[in-house]
Each structure stands twice: as structure tokens, then as C-alpha cells.
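Exercise (ungraded).
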Amino acid sequence: MPATPLTRRTLLAGTTAMLALSACGSGEGADAKELGISAIPDQDPELLNRLYPALAERFADETGLNVAYQPVTDYTAVVRAFEIGDVHLAWMGGLTGVQARERVPDATAIAQRDIDADFHSLFIANSGSGPRPFDGTAGLSGLAGHTLTFGSETSTSGRLMPQYFMREAGLKQSDLRGEPGFSGSHDATIEAVANGSFEVGAVNEQVWDATVEAGEVDLSDVEVLWRTPGYADYHWLVRPDIDDAFGKGTREKVLDLLLGLDQENSADAELLDLFGAESFVRTKDSDYDRIEDVARDLGLLE
Amino acid sequence: MTLRLDAPPSPPAAPAPTREHVSGRKVLLRKLVSLTAVAAMLAWAVHRAFPSGGELVNQDGLALFGDLAATALRPSLDADFLSVVLEAAATTLALALLGSVGALVVGLVGGLVLSDVAWGDAPPWPVRMGRLVLRGALVAVRSVHELVWALFLVTVLGLDPLVAVLALTLPFGAQSAQVFGETFDAVPDAPLRSLRAAGAKRFSALVYALLPATAPLLLSYSFYRFECALRSAVVLGVAGVGGLGFELTVSLQSRNWDEVWTLVAALLVLAGAIELWSNRVRSDVAVVTCADWSVGRERPDEGRAPRGLTRSTRLSLALMVPAISLAWWWVGLSPAGLTSAGTRERGGQLLSDLWPPALPEGGWPVLIGAALDTVTMAVLAMVLAVAITLLVGPWASRPRAGRHGPAASGRKAVWAVARAVLLVLRSIPPTVWAIIALLGFFPGILPGALALGLYTGGILGRLVAEAWETMNLKPRESLRDAGVPRAAAAVVSMTPPSANHLVTYTLYRFEICVRDTAIVGVVGAAGLGRLLNERLAAFDFPVVASVLLASLLVSIAVETLGRRVRRALRA
């Protein structure tokens, strides 16, 4: 746990600043206005609290605005903060992004990582639990009779798409042993499967790779059963009023900054690395139409 | 649900003259029917929660308990982290204080409107209609759990400290209004009548005639509410409103067990200190225990008279105003958020999203199934809570006899340990108990019941132990004087009233436990809470509305049933 206390402090400072700010009656007093950024808490909060304050600082340098990272503890809280306008710029998952756009008309997806256009989930299993790796969606039916945990309830890669493929394979939730769990984040899913709390888990490929690379998981405990076909996932979403609130061109500045992050620059590389990406690329709302269809189909979007 | 104090201290043993005559056989029959009903409910709950052939315990997850316990003795003592904990504790304390002050204001106003005394004999019909509507609204407001209120308020107000304060103020205010109304009605109304007859204005007459008589009780209740608000403020932290609960969630999500233990220790210290302080003030201003308050019994104690204000009570009263201002400043509260255009717009939006309610996918069977799961969870939780109470409660009653000698100090040590166990059980939020329970059980009814059972056990054990402390010892003395052996005298004389206390408080806590199932649903246990959380995550407000209506109906049904059983057992 490197620098744990520091990140905790930052987290608290961020929260208090936000509370104090919203208490001053948001809307008035343009001089004190802060650009709020936030992100779905898909991973270990300690990691997120290292990544996003650094990014907020970058945004502040580049735009000359006050930028604050607002930490939250669940996925839907980000959508709410975005809807209310406490947050103008948010790192969303495929599903949360679609939810947020439904609730804030004219909000737009502007950028995604190079890996997000063709994103994958993995089904992983505890080594002692029985299921063997398989090819093809149909193999999922072999998970009947096992316990399974998803990530967050509104996670795209940790719930929505895995559930979609389970449905394709004809595996009903009632075929599992017990109710499916919701671990809350991808890290928690990996840990729950590694220590045997659940036999099978659905996890995002990028977090899995990062965890394996960091040596945080004992590979003798967990094995990958199957890699899903690709779909579009994470992206940056901006509120339509960002230019009105922070001056014309803010949106372009933010986009330029994201697209301009360069592996050659060591500070940039560090940020990109924490995102698990080589670079950010442009995206558009229609890239997420399929996610929207699946979400409606599974009753996760009204 | 309330025993009023209809007359100034009457001889406790005297039977109420108006009570209808009930034959012994009828009483026995009623008790048998009640017992059978309870037994049937238990059997049903066990059957529902333990499907035949299914595995219950997740063997593999049990290893995690080892990890958890291994770090228990090594909490994080890092200076920076400790300062975070300190700040978080201050936030929790401040939110609890502001929330309970809000609740008391609502309670005072609402209580005056609800009380018969304030309106005189025959209030005009619009007043009566208004009061009926108010009464219904208050029942609805308090049947929704604080955490659910917070989730809704966040949708309207954003991440604002007002969310936490209002989430405490609304349900607690509704509860206080009812208690205050009953307290007002319970004082003799002669002073009020004479003031009115002498030409005093209605309001001044109320202030002068009602407040002096009820102030000690109201003050005592306020401190009791404060204790409850502290527990709830921690639970709200889980929803992201800051404070110890929020830190606890972050540390649990990061699986930093050493930090978890530090935070738990901070919670225990804070809760313990507040309860000691509250106990002291309550025993100063009026001899009313938490147990009395929880069942709405403002008891004019036979033996002990109020001792008058001690110095520490005076001091805490003098500190109230500065403390409230300090808390206000610390959390940065601003009522501006309430009246802003954005709030009005989003509030209107939320209401129109909620209406009309719609059935969840799967229709009635899903909704009814979830409601039944909720009741099952609450029943099983109460079984565990009663077991804890029976095991720990007798030791947690303050020893009254034989105050000297080594045996007495041994008994005192046992008493302290027992009270500490109960404090731990009720101070750790049920959401955290649920996360721990989910390590060892598959998601479903059982981990939820386990979490709620542990938490409720801590509260029930304390209530029952407190009630036992005030039990009349004379029957025991008489039996002993008559030559009955010590142990036999104790068992024979103490068991019936003890059982009575246990049953009363168990039924009362059962009603609250049903409401509390919403909180463990949020971490994925089962029942209406899980459905609510899932539909909130999908922003599916019409179904959220029908889930809330279902929980309201379950609450009312359980409360009505509880009242009937209590009446049957009392007769």
C-alpha cells in the first residue's frame, strides 16, 4: 500500500472541498466555480485516488480552471452527480454513459481509450471449483450449478455484457447456485474468486491484465475460462453546458488534452499507464448503440 | 402502540377500573393463539430461507474470516490516517447532531398539531381532516428508511451535507412528532384549561402550561434520539455522505483490513461516549430509559425521583447552541440548496418519474416474493437477536444486590464485558455486518438476516437489560422472606415479568427490523431492499415507487399485527 495515507487525505480534502463548495450555493459566484470531474469506482479506491487527482491537476494546468476530483463509492452516484451538474466531465462505463446521456439530453461521449472500441470481459474461475476453459459462447452453459459474482450492478464489462452472453448461451440466473453476487468492483471480483468466496466471476479484461502484471493475484488460484467477443466500453462524457459554465472552448481544451496525451512524455505515460491505455481516441454516441440495446433488453435502462 | 400516562402517578398495582372483564380461559386462549402464530411464522421463515438440499455455508469463503481476524490486533495507527479518522468522526458527530436537532424541531411542531390538548375539546373539521392527513403522512415518512431517504435526496440535492441532515430529520422527526404528541396529551390539562379560562391566548397558554411539565421528558427523548441518529449517520456514510461510514466503505472496498479495524475502534469509542453522556443526562432530567422510549412509555418511576440537573447536565445544555453552530460550520450546511430553482425542478422531475408506479419485470410474483423474503429476513434476524439477548442480556443488567466483596466486583466485570459486547454489535453498521456475512454465506436471505440479527441483538439486548434493571424486586424479597430458596425465588418471581419485557421489545424491534431490511438489501442481501437497489441503479423510478409502496404495506401490516399480539399478551 504505497502512499496510502496521502491518498486518503486527498480523498477527504476533495470531499470537504466539494461539500464546502456546494454549500456556498452552486451557480452563483463564477470566480469560485470548480470544474468537477469524477469516474465510476470500478477499481480499488486507492488506485482511483492516485489517478484522478493527478488528472484533475493536469486539467487545471491546461485550462486554467479550478478542477476537483469528486470521489464516489458507487456507479450510479456518478450518473447522479453528472445529472445534477456537480460533475461536468466524467469517466463512464458503456452502460453508465448511456444512462447518463438518457438523463442529460445532449451530453456527449467525446473520447475513449484505444482499447475501448473493442473491449472484452473474461469469465474467471477458482482453480479448485471445476469449470474448465472453453471456446465459444455456448460453453457458458457449463457454469450451471456454480456460484457466480458480477462486479457492480451497472458495470458494462462486469455485469451487462457477461449477462448478455450468458443469456445467449441459455444460462439462466436461476441455473446458478444461489443468487449471483455483486462484488462492487473488478478488483473485488478477482479477490472473491481467488479466495473462493465465489467459484466463477465476470471481470474486465484490462483490470485482470493489470492485476496479473502487478503480481497481485496468485495464478495457481484462478484461471481464465473464456474471453468474450468485443464491444465498446469506457469513455469520457461531457455535459452540454460545460462551455456556458466555464467559458467557450473548454470542451475543446479538454478533448485536446486527452487526445494529446503522449506515451513519449513521461508524465503523460504515467497517466496513460494508470488508465491501462496507450492513448485516447475520439468516440461518438452512436458507438454505444449496441450497449444501449443490450441494456434495454436486460432491463437495466428504462 | 403506546401506553399513555393518563393519570398522575397512580398506585402501580391498581387495575384500571375501565378494563373490560376477561375470563382466564380467554386470556389463555389468546396467548395460545399468539404463540401458535409466532411458531408458525418461525417455521415458515426457516422453511423459506433454508431451501432443502441447498448448501448454506460457503466453506471456501470462511478462510477469509481468518484474514479478517488476523489483522484485528494490528489496527492502522498511522498518524495521517488517524487524523482522517478524527475528521471523519467529527463529521459523523456533526451530522448526527444537526439531524437530531432538525428532528426535534419537526417533532415539536408536529407534536403540537397532533396533540388533542393543544386544540381543546372540539377542533373544527378542517383541523381534524388536516391532522388525519398529517398522521398518515408521518407514518409514510417514517416507514422509509434513512438510507433510502438519502438515496432520493442525493438525486435532488446532489452531494450536499443537507442530504444527510434531511435524511435523519425526516424519519426521526416523524417518529418524534408522534411521541411528543402523546407526551403532551399525557400531562394533566388542568393548568392549560385554567390559563385559557383566565383569557390567555392559545399559544402562550400552551407554552406556559405544557412546556414546563413536559420539558424533562422531551429533553430526555432528545438525547435518546441523538444516540439513534449517531448510529444512522454512520449507516448513511455508506451511501457516500461522508464521515466514519464513508471511510469504512472505502477501506472495505480497498480491503485494507487494518484501516477497517481502526475505524471500527473509532466508532466504538464515539458511540460509547455518546451513550454514557446521554444516559447521564437522561437519568438527571427524567427517569426514562431507552427501553421506555422505544415502546413509547414515559414512565413516572415509582421509586426514583428525578435528581434535578447536575453540573454536567447544565454544562451540556449550555454547550448545545455552540455545538450546533460548530457542527453547522464544520459540515458547511447551507439551506440555500433547498429553495434553489434546480432543486425544485429536479424534485418535480423525481416525483413525476415515480408516478405512476409500475410492477417489476416478472410482475406480482416477483414483488410479493421480495416482500415475503423481507419478512423472512426480519423474522430470522429477530430469532438471532433474541438468542443474543437471552445469552448476553442477563449479564448486561446492572447488578443491584450484594454490592460488596470479590463476588460483586466479579459480577461487575462480567456486566461491563456484556455491555461492551452489545455496544460492539449495535455500533457496527448492519451494512458492514452484511459485507462480512457475505464472506461466509451465499447472497440471499441468510447473510441479510445474520447482519440484521447481530445489529438488532445489540440494541434489543440493551433495551431488555435496561428494562430488567428497573424490575420490581419486592416479589423476590417476599418469597425469600417466606423461606423459598434464593434461586427458586429469583426464577419464580423474575421470569414472568422478564418474559413480558422480552416479548414487548422483541415485537417492537421486529417492526423496525422490517424497515431495516432495506439497508442490507443495498449490499445485495435479498428482499425488497435488493429489488429497490437494483431498480434505483437502473433509474427505473416507477418500479422503485411500487417497491416503496410494498414496503409501506408490509410495515403497516407488521405494525398492526405486532400491536394485536402485544395486546393479546398483555390482557
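Further reading is listed at the end of the chapter. For now, observe: Residues 1-17, 300-304 of chain B have pLDDT under 50 and may be disordered. Chain B touches chain A through 62 residues (CB under 8 Å).
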